[in-house]
From TrEMBL:
Pfam families: Dak2. GO terms for molecular function: glycerone kinase activity. The keyword Transferase applies. GO terms for cellular component: cytosol. GO terms for biological process: glycerol catabolic process. Residues 328-440 form the DhaL domain. InterPro entries: DhaL_dom (IPR004007), DhaL_dom_sf (IPR036117), Dihydroxyacetone_Kinase (IPR050861). The lineage of its organism: Eukaryota, Fungi, Dikarya, Ascomycota, Pezizomycotina. The keyword Transferase applies. Keywords: Kinase, Transferase. SUPFAM superfamilies: DhaL-like. This is Dak phosphatase. It comes from Macrophomina phaseolina (strain MS6).
Length: 440
């Protein structure tokens, strides 16, 4: 299958305006519909996640610095309230946030932890079921967000255990940072660790130096512990480099027989052209606060089943079967879905101009129009082979990232229909799949 890649022109920083808290009050609810913006009496906007209204756990609120919307907010779904402080507005207290949550129907009966980016680090409370944590630096801020998400259920439901966990973290956590330097050392690039400037030979060696440094301070821990290890790429390492970081860190910990839980987040400095690198934060915690993560199975360690080879899957999509497909019902469902999508193209385009490059609506509309013209006269009683042929046309007609993704989906869909038909031994296939197909 061919994939057509179209150039995307990036928006300028002034057009994105991501340092403006009001911008995120518009963007974030589009990314996560359960989030609603609420303006407090002090003029600050709080983003509340209504999906957590009845959470059985201690609620988490995060207050970032003005103009700094942590990337962790985008991925983490355990944060009930998010504030990016607006300059000139009143400063929200932890009790202000508790009142805002309760006023908007979000239960805080188990307690509330308010995490605030600050110049110093300290833990205050609990007062009226509220604990306030001030952290210095985005690395520790992100590490704490991850730790509060992955803590044991006992810790997440007891405000007093949470306070004990937070105080232990603030007392014992250690961080380190390494950045690439523009000058060379010998014949290779160089890297600046917190403990020295040296030649960069391999990621394995560089990370081993950093991990040895931060783990040395944790050797005094007694009893069963889990090492909470959080790493961040600085100023945009490639995704491949981030995977290498994760692999090398986990591999080192395993060779040292250290039980751990790994988390990550990207860090972007004030100057996006500044040095790239990574940062690591480590804290050893008793296992009643944090359980170690299990090692994921390696899917490549098992031999591939002969029945699932690419050649046989491709042949299956075009093979005949005794299953009957209701052509009229299928065509009706697909037509309804495609027409609905075409009608919503302006709305989709408007959303994509806010969070993308503005071509999503047009790309999906073109794909829907192609599907309509293709199925108009097609023999839908042979649906798997029709879908396989449709993929070939959409690869050329639809284009864009969406086009490539839907082609992958349709190829798998055709094979799944064929497999179901063959395993079912005939009959009429349910039409419940086809609103999904029509949603192209």
């Amino acid at each position: 299958m061919s994939v057509i890649v179209e150039q995307t022109i990036p928006w300028s920083p002034s057009e994105l305006d991501l340092s403006n808290p009001k911008r995120w009050a518009t963007l974030f609810p589009l990314l996560r519909p359960s989030v609603v913006p609420v303006t407090t009496s002090k003029g600050q906007t709080v983003l509340l996640d209504r999906a957590l209204s009845n959470s059985p756990y201690i609620q988490i609120a995060a207050i970032g610095r003005s103009g700094n919307f942590s990337s962790k907010f985008l991925s983490d779904r355990h944060i009930a309230a998010i504030v990016t402080e607006t300059s000139g507005a009143g400063i929200l207290t932890a009790q202000d946030l508790r009142h805002t949550l309760e006023q908007n129907g979000i239960q805080v009966g188990q307690g509330l932890v308010v995490l605030r980016a600050a110049k110093d680090s300290k833990v205050s409370g609990p007062e009226n079921g509220v604990v306030e944590v001030e952290t210095e630096g985005e690395l520790v801020f992100d590490h704490l967000l991850s730790l509060l998400e992955h803590a044991t259920e006992t810790a997440r439901t007891s405000i007093h255990q949470t306070v004990e966990l937070l105080k232990l973290f603030m007392k014992t956590a250690v961080t380190t940072k390494s950045e690439f330097h523009p000058s060379k050392k010998g014949e290779n690039a160089s890297i600046v660790h917190e403990i020295g400037h040296e030649e960069f030979e391999a990621a394995t060696k560089a990370l081993e130096k950093d991990l040895t440094h931060v783990l040395r301070s944790q050797v005094s821990q007694t009893g069963p512990v889990t090492y909470s290890v959080h790493y961040s790429d600085i100023n945009g390492l490639s995704q491949l480099e981030v995977y290498i970081l994760a692999y090398e860190i986990s591999n080192y910990l395993e060779t040292q027989n250290i039980r751990y839980r790994l988390s990550s987040s990207p860090l972007i400095g004030p100057d996006p052209l500044s040095a790239r690198g990574w940062a690591i934060s480590v804290c050893a915690l008793p296992t009643h606060f944090l359980a170690p993560q299990s090692k994921p199975p390696n899917p490549l360690s098992k031999p591939t089943s002969p029945s699932s080879t690419p050649a046989k899957l491709a042949a299956a999509a075009s093979a005949s079967s005794t299953t009957t497909f209701d052509a009229a019902q299928i065509r009706h469902r697909i037509t309804l879905g495609c027409n609905a999508l075409i009608a919503e193209e302006p709305t989709i385009t408007r959303y994509d101009t806010i969070v993308g490059d503005g071509d999503c609506g047009l790309t999906l509309r073109d794909g829907a129009q192609k599907v309509l013209s293709f199925v108009r006269d097609a023999d839908l009683t042979q649906l798997p082979s029709v879908l396989a042929a449709l993929v070939d046309d959409l690869e050329v007609t639809m284009g864009g990232t969406s086009g490539a993704l839907y082609c992958i989906f349709l190829s798998a869909f055709a094979n799944a229909l064929r497999a179901e038909a063959q395993s079912g031994g005939g009959g009429v296939v349910s039409i419940t799949y086809f609103p999904v197909l029509g949603a192209l």
